[in-house]
Write the structure tokens for this entry.
Amino acid sequence: MRQRAGRQGASRSAADYLSSERYLQALTGGEVGRAAVLYPNSYAVGMSSLATHTLWRLLAEAGWQTHRAFLDPEPGHSLETGWPLSSYHLLACTCSFELDYLHLAALLEAGGIPPLRRERSAEAPLLIAGGPGVTANPLPLATLFDLIFLGEVEEVWPRLAAALRQAPHSRVAALEAAAEVPGILRPDQLPSAPLPRQRLREVDAYPTASVALTPKAQFSDMFLVEIGRGCPHTCRFCLAREIFSPFRPRSEPVLLRTIRPALEATRRVGLVGAALSDHPRLLELCETLVAEGAQLSTSSLRVDKLQPQLLELLASSGARSVTLAPEAGTEKLRASLGKRFTDEQVLAAAEAAQAVGLRGLKLYFMLGLPEETEADRAAIGQLMAEIHCRAPRLRLEAALSPLVPKPHTPWAEHQMAPVAKMRAWQSAVQRDLRRQGVRVTVGSARWALVQAAFSRGGEELGPVLVAAARRGGSLPAVRAALKEAGLRLEDYLAPPAEAPWKIVDLGA
Ligand code: SF4
């Protein structure tokens, strides 16, 4: 899972978006009250998130008249009707990325809702949040939301839905009933013991897939389907592994039953999951889908699990490139972060990609890892040069991201490098790669530090988020808002003395 920062998507009207959507499920509802799903980024990003589709479906099936709200076309107003967010009874927000917290505060304000809970009246909508970022550490958003859900909602949804039904009549009754639901945190009554996150035990009983298709999503007209939850690997930086454990692949028959009806509407199928390459029936699933005319896309694949037949299938179904995530340039550093595959395996994967006719190879690397040395950074360029020698027809691309230590991971307590140092490291590796003709994208060192603050900070950040959003949400705005609160961004380079995320028991 990779962080996407900032707002993305061109400016369009609501009519443009709505007229281009094709619905795969009829979503009715309306007798309970008015609800909006908030995704605090653009329509294009939000409609590429399965969390948006899932919340939309769950609320509509529970009887809510359900609309969606993104940063565009009109911030703070629903896509379907243009109503301000303040006119809803329930706002359900899914926050996948910490930097979107700034957008969230702006979106609430634009919708006529004071973002801080203490400033809202009893007539305000009930605000509930969920998603990986808030499950890992709910405290940065604790002063904004009425309720925060920790973990995977599917199995407790009937209980939570029953509690939330009371919101249009009595906010207090809804809050009290919801607080009894497993996984619910009431931020105005923080628990004294860690609250366990909820997990889905029967993944086959709850398929997770797109509700609608649109050419205006990042994954244009693509049917997204989650083929499993969790990951069996133990990469030391990885939050997804902690949040979504244990590894639970969905069965092939269930996946085929989910995907086949969608093939009548689109040939484009995106297979989603933290550990795609570990799915025990991935090859068979892909073979069947390609034989039935699907054009497959996948997120990044594990180097040590890459089967040439899988690459062949992806190429034959129209894929042009593949993404791998070696993360580090040397085997030693890779092993220390939990990816024990060799340079030779990376090179063999590149050769295999070229052999099946793929044109591009993208590789993810991180900088600022514990134990990382100058030699490790220089090795990224050497590895890319060797890849070019062994697979010269591939167009190579590298993404260099600063490590952002995430709560609950073994590296949660890692001291981040100062921004100037990180930028110097990035520039050196970037120069080396550019000399070789590799296309390079570099993650902002300064925004990585903001992300670290929002990941491992505490309740002090709620008013900071609101003040920064009011100033436009830029980096200077974040710095100014922190300063007003007596804080500095650099304070978050080091882990907090008392980890705020200990309020959550991930049970990983
Ligand atoms: S392979 Fe590693 S980085 Fe990828 S999801 Fe699993 S633990 Fe995370």
